[in-house]
């Protein structure tokens, strides 16, 4: 995977609200820390080579958001509408993202590391070379997606819904779930551990496995 291309020595301390200084809602080479951004509606904001640290975005609507070479650290994006977003070389570390909506988005080299994504919507999305690491994706809606080189590592997938999405080449074996809503159509080529295989056997075939 490609990491965000950011030279921190050249970042300027700034406010997210500086984005309104540009007619096309553009931010670049900024470091933004400790802000509270509430109920902002911006169509097609563009942010490049920027680091956000401990910034809270509360119920914001950033339709068609474009992020390139951006890092979020300890941020809260819960219940934000980020539909039709384009994310390229973007990392989220220790972020709270409950109920975030990424429907119809494009991810390329995106990392979610130790993030809380419960109840998120990631539907009709295209995900390429993206990683979910040590993150919670409970009750996530993950339908009608196209996946290429996507990694799930040590994640909680309980009650996740994955419909009309081919999982060939995906590895769930290091992840956890008690139940998951998934289609037989999609699991061909999916790698699972023994407990997960037992659940899927019961789910699709009604097979009872004894030990």
Helix/strand layout:
Elements: E1 12-13, E2 26-28, E3 30-33, E4 36-38, E5 46-53, E6 56-58, E7 66-73, E8 86-93, E9 106-113, E10 126-128, E11 131-133, E12 146-148, E13 151-153, E14 161-162, E15 181-182, H1 194-205
Parallel strand pairs: 1-3, 2-5, 3-5, 4-6, 5-7, 7-8, 8-9, 9-10, 9-11, 10-12, 11-13, 14-15
Structural description of this entry:
The structure is a single chain. The protein has 211 residues and is mainly β. The protein has a single domain (8-157), classed as Pectate Lyase C-like (3 Solenoid). Helices cover 6% and strands 30% of the residues. Strands 1, 2, 3, 5, 7, 8, 9, 10, 11, 12 and 13 form an eleven-stranded parallel β-sheet that branches. A two-stranded parallel sheet has the order 4-6. The radius of gyration is 18 Å and the shape is elongated. It comes from Companilactobacillus nantensis DSM 16982. This is Pentapeptide repeat-containing protein. InterPro entries: 5peptide_repeat, PA_immunity-related.
């Amino acid at each position: 995977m490609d990491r965000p291309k950011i030279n921190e020595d050249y970042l300027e301390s700034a406010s997210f609200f500086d984005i309104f200084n540009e007619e096309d809602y553009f931010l670049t080479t900024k470091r933004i820390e400790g802000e509270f951004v509430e109920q902002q509606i911006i169509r097609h904001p563009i942010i490049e080579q920027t680091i956000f640290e401990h910034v809270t975005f509360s119920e914001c609507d950033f339709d068609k958001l474009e992020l390139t070479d951006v890092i979020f650290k300890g941020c809260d994006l819960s219940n934000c509408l980020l539909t039709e977003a384009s994310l390229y070389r973007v990392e989220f570390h220790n972020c709270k993202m409950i109920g975030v909506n990424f429907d119809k988005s494009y991810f390329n080299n995106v990392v979610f590391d130790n993030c809380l994504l419960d109840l998120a919507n990631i539907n009709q999305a295209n995900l390429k070379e993206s990683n979910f690491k040590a993150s919670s994706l409970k009750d996530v809606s993950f339908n009608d997606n196209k996946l290429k080189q996507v990694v799930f590592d040590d994640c909680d997938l309980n009650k996740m819904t994955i419909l009309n999405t081919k999982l060939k080449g995906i590895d769930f074996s290091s992840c956890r779930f008690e139940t998951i809503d998934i289609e037989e159509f999609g699991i061909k080529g999916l790698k699972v551990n023994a407990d997960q295989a037992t659940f899927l056997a019961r789910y699709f075939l009604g097979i009872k496995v004894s030990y």
